[in-house]
């Protein structure tokens, strides 16, 4: 079997692992010097054997001598929950290693160099585009040390998220709401501020239009310092809520990434959305626009530290969809700014901080 065919098989094996969690899905095929498949392995999730070690465990001692290991991710170089795969491959007498994507982990990287220093031939980049696409959410979170952040709001044509008395159910129609639930099911976690928990008592589950739970449920994350009311709907969520103080969003996001949250849906309210936007920590906006006017003070997004037009945050429209009577606008930032509390403009004044003020 040629390298590319073996890598395709390794990718197939990788799909058997769990799609969510701290660790990536990884597959491995061990080929003899003649290209025959000697063993296959895959990773079953954090705390279990890595793909290489799983494949090697299926061989008799000495059987991997002179063989080639084909693995979707660069073999790790660290002792985490398990030992370094680079060392396991060296000890097994592997002569050649072929991998697709480099390991971006801060502690786990460096396996390729370690293999080379042990005299093993190493080839990188085989089927790299396919494996990158397969691991996209894990790679994003590991490379950026935070989940991919989507901020969503529903607003009137004039950009209001609620009427003056605070009522907001329902600005958009059923098609827009169904779209939100489908997207909730596709992310690892949903964030709200404590103000929203107190004001709206959201369940933060992903449901069908009939109200049944979808198969995948995002973990609820609550930002803010106020305690959750004992009877809050969120306490009946299938996953226990994670609470974050919100004093430093960048470090909160790092903590979520370390817990295996690769994608985060920020659902509100305006205070939390504004804090993420002000901090430059947003990768995607989902704006559901209803053909109504509400006027008044309840804007969808509050202060972003933009005081003059030159400081406007720029996005481009990635997609516009009609959902029933409403529109969905998907927008991506043109450039991500560094966290606001670490930047100082030319006059020496610092911009808005990355913390969440109390509100909704
Ligand atoms: C590999 N092969 O099959 C996987 C790798 O805590 P640990 O010991 O499970 O290490 C987790 C890290 O190892 C993970 O974040 C990623 O960088 C790498 N995963 N590496 O050589 C595998 N699953
Ligand atoms: Zn490993």
What's the layout of helices and strands?
Blueprint lengths: L2 H12 L12 E5 L5 E6 L8 H6 L11 E6 L11 H7 L4 E6 L9 H7 L3 E3 L4 H7 L1 H9 L3 E9 L17 H12 L3 E5 H7 L18 E5 L18 E3 L4 H10 L4 E6 L1 H9 L5 E7 L24 E9 L2 E8 L27
Parallel strand pairs: 3-4, 4-5, 6-10, 6-11, 7-8, 7-10, 8-9
Antiparallel strand pairs: 1-2, 1-3, 11-13, 12-13
The proportion of residues in beta strands is 15-25%
Q: How many H/I helices?
A: 10
Number of strands: 13
CATH H-tier superfamily of the largest domain: Dihydrofolate Reductase, subunit A
Topology-level CATH name of the largest domain: Dihydrofolate Reductase, subunit A
**What is the gyration radius calculated from CA atoms?**
24 Å
Helix amount: 10-25%
Structural class: alpha/beta
> How many domains make up the coordinates?
2
Order of H and E elements? HEEHEHEHEHHEHEHEEHEHEEE
CATH class of the largest domain: Alpha Beta
Architecture overview:
By secondary structure, the protein is of the alpha/beta class. The chain has two domains: 3-135, Cytidine Deaminase, domain 2 (3-Layer(aba) Sandwich); 145-354, Dihydrofolate Reductase, subunit A. It is 24% helix and 22% strand. The chain is built from ten helices and 13 strands. It has helices spanning 3-14, 51-56, 85-91, 111-117, 128-134, 136-144, 174-185, 194-200, 249-258, 270-278; strands spanning 27-31, 37-42, 68-73, 96-101, 121-123, 148-156, 189-193, 219-223, 242-244, 263-268, 284-290, 315-323, 326-333. The strands form two sheets. It has an eight-stranded mixed β-sheet, sandwiched between helices. Strands 2-1-3-4-5 form a five-stranded mixed β-sheet, with helices on both faces. β4, α4 and β5 (121-123) form a beta-alpha-beta unit. The radius of gyration is 24 Å and the shape is elongated. The model is unreliable at 341-352 (pLDDT under 50).
């Amino acid at each position: 079997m040629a390298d590319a065919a073996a890598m395709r098989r390794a990718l197939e094996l990788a799909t058997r692992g769990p799609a969510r969690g701290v660790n990536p899905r990884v597959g491995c095929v061990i080929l003899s010097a003649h290209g025959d498949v000697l063993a296959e392995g895959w990773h079953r999730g954090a705390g279990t054997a890595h793909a290489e070690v799983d494949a090697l465990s299926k061989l008799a001692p000495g059987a991997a001598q002179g063989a080639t290991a084909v693995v979707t991710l660069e073999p790790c170089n660290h002792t985490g929950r398990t030992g370094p795969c680079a060392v396991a491959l060296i000890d097994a007498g592997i002569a050649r290693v072929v991998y697709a994507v480099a390991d971006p982990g801060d502690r786990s990287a460096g396996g390729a160099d370690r293999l080379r220093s042990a005299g093993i031939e190493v080839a990188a980049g085989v089927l790299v585009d396919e494996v990158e696409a397969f691991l996209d959410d894990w790679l994003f979170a590991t490379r950026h040390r935070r989940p991919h952040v989507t901020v969503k709001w529903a607003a009137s044509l004039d950009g209001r998220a609620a009427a003056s008395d605070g009522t907001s159910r329902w600005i958009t129609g059923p098609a827009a709401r169904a779209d939100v639930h489908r997207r909730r099911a596709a992310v690892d976690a949903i964030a709200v501020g404590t103000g929203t928990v107190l004001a709206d008592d959201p369940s933060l589950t992903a449901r069908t239009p009939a109200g049944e739970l979808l198969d995948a449920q995002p973990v609820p994350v609550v930002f803010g310092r106020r305690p959750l009311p004992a009877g809050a709907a969120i306490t009946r969520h299938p996953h226990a809520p994670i609470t974050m103080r919100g004093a430093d969003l960048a470090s909160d996001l790092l903590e979520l990434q370390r817990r295996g949250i690769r994608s985060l849906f920020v659902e509100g309210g305006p205070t939390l959305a504004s804090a993420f936007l002000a901090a430059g920590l947003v990768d995607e906006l989902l704006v559901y626009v209803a053909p109504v006017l509400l006027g008044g003070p309840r804007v969808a997004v509050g202060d972003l530290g933009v005081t003059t037009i030159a400081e406007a945050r720029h996005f481009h429209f990635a997609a516009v969809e009609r959902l029933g009577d409403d529109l969905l606008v998907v927008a991506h930032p043109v450039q991500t700014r560094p966290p606001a509390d670490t930047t100082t403009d030319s006059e020496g004044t610092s911009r808005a901080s990355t913390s969440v003020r109390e509100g909704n």
